[in-house]
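Hypothesis: this fold can be encoded by more than one sequence.
Test: take the structure tokens below, design a sequence, compare later.
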């Protein structure tokens, strides 16, 4: 039991107190006497998810009118149903059975998650309005809220997307920055793994001197392109020969996430307040030599495999769906499960600009990421291409995360 508490506490960043601690007192004879202290109660360790009264939660956070976009002019009911089907496929696998057999939160089981999705799908298909769906969900489901990063439900949101880049299958004087396949002996690599700078050089052109020589799969004209693919985990590729392909995550060295934007802010190069991906890209376009100083600070290196046009795929090995898939810490959150998020996201206006709109949306938990740790982090999938990248680059803020499960 204590082992489980310790593992959970470590995942939440909480230290446990040793109940067998001792105090040394000094006796009149000057001989030390060990006086045992009464065992202290363990501090309460909150599970990552807590059942909540959704009426109270919504009154406080303004989440009524759940997912009204499903019935709007640009409703994406089909996308939601497709995403549900992807999760149901995952929940029927042996991998899902293994993971849920060890899931740490009582009452959240594979069978309950699967039945919840099946029933919710039926309600989405049969409901004629957001209000009708909301009423049915209130009757039949219970909500579990993430405790967030403060124990009170505050969740930090970011977004990711699938970029689209042009690349060459051969190195040229223009296309010279490589993306690499996973080494065939990667599992036997000694740890600590080589750092990014060891594998590609400070300028990204280590080439024939690299341990990865011969594993190049594609070449890019801009060093920032493969770096962004490392961050996003996949990409659609327009080849210089007129054909198309795609790449997806195949492995990575074991180093933690380092924010390059945070490093620039720490050095006083850019203000941390209001720092977005478009501003970061603009800085490096104006100061290309700075790439050599800052990109190596993220020591992790990522390897890829060619996926031949397959859509971006999440960590549970199903496609992620635009505006319907999220990434969370899978050591804490139920993979494939139905969730509802509340946060502000940028949407295009009729004038071609992006404006923030606070929404609540039903989503499926289908992915994870090296920077997505703890119960207070959600990464939201924005889709593929430039608009998705523009939206993802300015997404942020604090919101809420709930999981929906059928009442027992």
């Amino acid at each position: 039991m204590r082992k489980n508490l310790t593992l959970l506490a470590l995942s939440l960043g909480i230290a446990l107190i040793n109940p067998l601690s001792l105090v040394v007192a000094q006796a009149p004879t000057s001989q030390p006497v060990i006086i045992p202290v009464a065992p202290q109660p363990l501090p309460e360790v909150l599970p990552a998810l807590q059942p909540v009264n959704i009426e109270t939660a919504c009154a406080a956070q303004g989440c009524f009118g759940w997912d009204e976009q499903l019935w709007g002019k640009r409703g994406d009911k089909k996308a939601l149903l497709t995403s549900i089907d992807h999760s149901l496929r995952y929940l029927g696998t042996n991998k899902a059975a293994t993971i849920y057999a060890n899931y740490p939160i009582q009452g959240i089981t594979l069978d309950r998650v699967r039945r919840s999705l099946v029933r919710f799908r039926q309600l989405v298909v049969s409901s004629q309005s957001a209000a009708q769906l909301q009423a049915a969900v209130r009757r039949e489901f219970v909500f579990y809220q993430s405790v967030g990063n403060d124990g009170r439900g505050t969740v930090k949101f970011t977004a990711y997307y699938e970029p689209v880049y042009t690349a060459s299958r051969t190195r040229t004087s223009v296309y010279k920055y490589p993306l690499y396949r996973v080494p065939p002996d990667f599992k036997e690599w000694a740890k600590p793994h080589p750092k990014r700078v060891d594998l590609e050089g400070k300028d990204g052109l280590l080439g024939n001197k690299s341990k990865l020589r011969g594993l190049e799969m594609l070449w890019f004209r801009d060093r920032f392109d493969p770096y962004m693919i490392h961050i996003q985990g996949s990409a659609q590729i327009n080849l210089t020969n007129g054909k198309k392909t795609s790449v997806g995550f195949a492995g990575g060295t074991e180093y933690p996430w380092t924010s390059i934007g945070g490093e620039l802010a720490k050095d006083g190069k850019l203000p941390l307040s209001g720092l977005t991906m478009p501003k970061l890209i603009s800085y490096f376009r104006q100061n290309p030599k700075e790439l050599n100083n800052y990109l190596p600070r993220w020591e992790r290196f990522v390897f890829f495999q060619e996926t031949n046009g397959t859509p971006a795929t999440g960590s549970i090995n199903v496609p992620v769906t635009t505006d319907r898939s999220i990434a969370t810490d899978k050591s804490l959150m139920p993979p494939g499960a139905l969730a509802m998020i509340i946060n502000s996201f940028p949407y295009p206006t009729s004038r071609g600009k992006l404006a923030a709109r606070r929404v609540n949306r039903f989503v499926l938990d289908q992915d994870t990421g090296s920077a997505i740790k703890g119960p207070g982090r959600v990464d939201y999938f924005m889709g593929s291409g430039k608009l998705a990248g523009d939206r993802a680059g300015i997404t942020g803020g604090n919101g809420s995360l709930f999981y929906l499960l059928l009442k027992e």
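The longest strand covers residues 354-367. The radius of gyration is 24 Å.
Hypothesis status: open.
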